[in-house]
Amino acid sequence: MTADRLAAATVNKIVTVNEAAVDSSAGRKLIVTALRLLAAGHPITVDELAATAGVAAPDLAAAPVGGDIEYDDQGRIVGWGLTLKPTPHRFTVNGHQLYTYCAPDTLIFPVLIDEVADVESEDPVTGTTVRLTVDPRQGVSGVEPAGAVVTFVDPERFDATRVRATLCDPQRFFADAGAARQWQARYPGMRIVPVPEGFSIAKDFAALLETGATPVSGCC
User: Fold this and answer.
1) 3 state SS of 155
2) Which of 23, 47, 70, 157 gives a 20 to 30 Å CA spacing to 40?
3) Which of these, 71, 114, 122, 72, lies nearest to 93 by C-alpha position?
4) Which Pfam families does the UniProt record give (predicted)?
5) Does 83 map to a domain?
6) Which parts of the chain fold into alpha helices (H)?
7) Catalytic residue numbers, as ranges
8) Which pLDDT score is estimated for 83?
9) CA nearest to 6, candidates 204, 188, 209
């Protein structure tokens, strides 16, 4: 599967799972708007999200990845792909310590929020901390270890009603391809790519989430 088809199949599966309740255009707008608001480092209200996105009375439970939205005790959103709650993927933007649900999110979200992010994520096999900086225009830099890779789940093998558990959790950074292959044995069809190539795929994801347009990828 080519990079653009991987992105298209994954995004389409996510945004259309509950299209009868929330159409795919509104769903994309809600999640992208939520990412941009959460990047400021504080919780957001449902009303604030709806007003900013221009979507009336959204049914967030039916929105893309809606079942994985995190709320605080005041009913405010604290996580929707990008989260204020700790995960294995640390994502620092403008001094705000944030986190993401999965490794590829750290490559996708800088493009969607148009901000540079510093990333740290632990390899679940070796325990090595993978570090990098993601610039939406310049790409990735400062990748440590230099041979680090990132994984993408086969879009046919995740449950669109349980995105965090079946898509996000398995997608990780690894110190090298050897470590990733040990992990891959648990997830048939999982794709392993060098981090810079992962960013190329991430740009396709971002384009699809933001506009719904099919990207033209020069990768793979």
Assistant:
1) helix
2) 23
3) 114
4) HTH_15 (PF12324), MerB (PF03243)
5) yes
6) 3-15, 24-38, 46-53, 105-113, 163, 177-184, 195-211
7) 102, 105, 168
8) 98
9) 204
Q: Give the total number of structural domains in the chain.
A: 1
Question: 71's torsion region: left (phi>0), alpha (psi -120 to 50) or beta?
Answer: beta
Q: pTM here?
A: 0.91
CB 179 within 8 A of CB 173: no
Question: Which backbone phi and psi does 99 adopt, to 5 degrees?
Answer: -145, 165
Structural domain contains residue 217: no
**Residue length of the chain:** 220
pLDDT digits (tens, 9 = 90+) for 42-57: 999 999 999 999 987 6
CA dihedral defined by 187, 194, 14, 1, rounded to 10 degrees? -80
219: in domain: no
Weakest-pLDDT range from 18-27, 131-140, 148-157, 164-173: 18-27
CATH number for the domain harbouring residue 198: 3.30.450.410
**Residue-range definition of the domain harbouring residue 16:** 3-210
- How far apart are alpha carbons 182 and 184 in whole angstroms? 5
Does 216 reside within a domain?
no
d(CA 73, CA 187): 35
Other C-beta atoms closer than 10 Å to the C-beta of 48 total 15
Beta strand 96-100 with 149-152 is unpaired
Nearest by Cα to 107 from 83, 131, 135: 135
| Amino acid in the structure at residue 172 | R
